[in-house]
Amino acid sequence: xxxxxxxxxxxxxxxxxxxxxxxxxxxxxxxxxxxxxxxxxxxxxxxxxxxxxxxxxxxxxxxxxxxxxxxxxxxxxxxxxxxxxxxxxxxxxxxxxxxxxxxxxxxxxxxxxxxxxxxxxxxxxxxxxxxxxxxxxxxxxxxxxxxxxxxxxxxxxxxxxxxxxxxxxxxxxxxxxxxxxxxxxxxxxxxxxxxxxxxxxxxxxxxxxxxxxxxxxxxxxxxxxxxxxxxxxxxxxxxxxxxxxxxxxxxxxxxxxxxxxxxxxxxxxxxxxxxxxxxxxxxxxxxxxxxxxxxxxxxxxxxxxxxxxxxxxxxxxxxxxxxxxxxxxxxxxxxxxxxxxxxxxxxxxxxxxxxxxxxxxxxxxxxxxxxxxxxxxxxxxxxxxxxxxxxxxxxxxxxxxxxxxxxxxxxxxxxxxxxxxxxxxxxxxxxxxxxxxxxxxxxxxxxxxxxxxxxxxxxxxxxxxxxxxxxxxxxxxxxxxxxxxxxxxxxxxxxxxxxxxxxxxxxxxxxxxxxxxxxxx
Length: 521
Description:
Elements: H1 2-18, E1 38-43, H2 51-64, E2 69-74, E3 88-93, H3 102-110, E4 115-119, H4 122-127, H5 132-136, E5 138-144, E6 148-153, E7 156-159, E8 168-174, E9 180-187, E10 192-199, E11 202-205, H6 219-230, E12 237-247, H7 253-265, E13 270-274, E14 277-280, E15 291-294, H8 299-310, E16 313-317, E17 342-346, E18 352-357, H9 363-379, H10 397-406, E19 409-411, E20 414-416, E21 432-434, E22 440-441, E23 447-449, E24 454-455, H11 469-478, E25 484-491, H12 498-509, E26 514-515
Parallel strand pairs: 1-2, 1-3, 3-4, 4-11, 12-13, 12-25, 12-26, 13-16, 19-23, 24-25
Antiparallel strand pairs: 5-8, 6-7, 6-9, 9-10, 10-11, 14-15, 17-18, 20-21, 22-23
């Protein structure tokens, strides 16, 4: 099988060169200047849940990737003076009583550069300085485990999951002359306690903002607080994007044209996430008869795609078949329904369970599929897309490397795995996902265009609630708390025009967003 894949790839590469698309390797870029903003991200590693420290470090490094470059390493490997080498330092205290180096504690107190401390082990820092309260103006008390379902930030109530029982730090003392409360946690009885504070160059978050994060969550407050730490002069700007999802050879060309005309009339640039081959291997939607349709077999769909480009549409490559063989992965093997680069199944509780990449060493397979897809587009006269989106937002580390090598730019949410930062064997049983309120360069080195506001889904499925237009507009309103953020959506054309019209009008009614194309990000 490996030999066959290599042969197929070689043939495809020759074909791409002959039609002027170049090779599957991205052209070498000129050396970029070192980023002016750098951050040291320190994380815990001990105990049963030590692997989560690395995961949280990846999520933090990704957000830092909006501003500059992050260097992440275990806090146990901190060396005296490390902080002086970076614009700022961020420590994520995810393991209770993680042993912290004395040099790290001393430098945290002595540095004049920004330091962010998240959640646990703050007691080790305060214990290292007998005059901490007098010097800094605050002192922690204990974790408050009261029911807390929202966080108030910049006059906006952001949600906090009722499933989050980890507690938020409360305070024995806060001197308002020395300490600024950045956000308040609001208990369900209406009383409050500080959620994030700043004293001089030191910022403290009383809980882990990555736990139970969602599109309407207090995670947005943390994403905005990072501007104060890394880019305080950033001007207010709010952008919106819309991506038409799961468009393929079986799409309705009249519907595509109608949507393009509407968005063009509203001066809304858009993108079209397109796969090039439709497969129904078991005849699920074709009376039991297997069916495969390529773009070449659907000239009216191709004409509609080209028409959409004239109306401000950008074609995004969204896999090749958006499914995997004849397998239920996890549903029925049909394009648009199933994963293409990841294995998954539906469990007895009706939840989709991620099993792992198709192959642990899947780089060659990914390059082959991506390159064949590019050839599919070229053969119908559509230029090779410059932006990639993983089907169902799932790929393995080797798949992400392939995308980085061929595109350098993705437009999706992403999965991250313990072992990746430390260059150890990757544990695919413990993935963590992340969406971004702004564009970032993530730990895979890829520029990621954000999709952070979700999609219209009128019916609940797989333990996910229905998401209606008012919910989507509310997410845009909450994202206004991020001073240079996005309200970025995707939408399935088969739902027709009306919900999309309502969404565009709803976002426009906020009076703050400018619709932009992904190529401008």
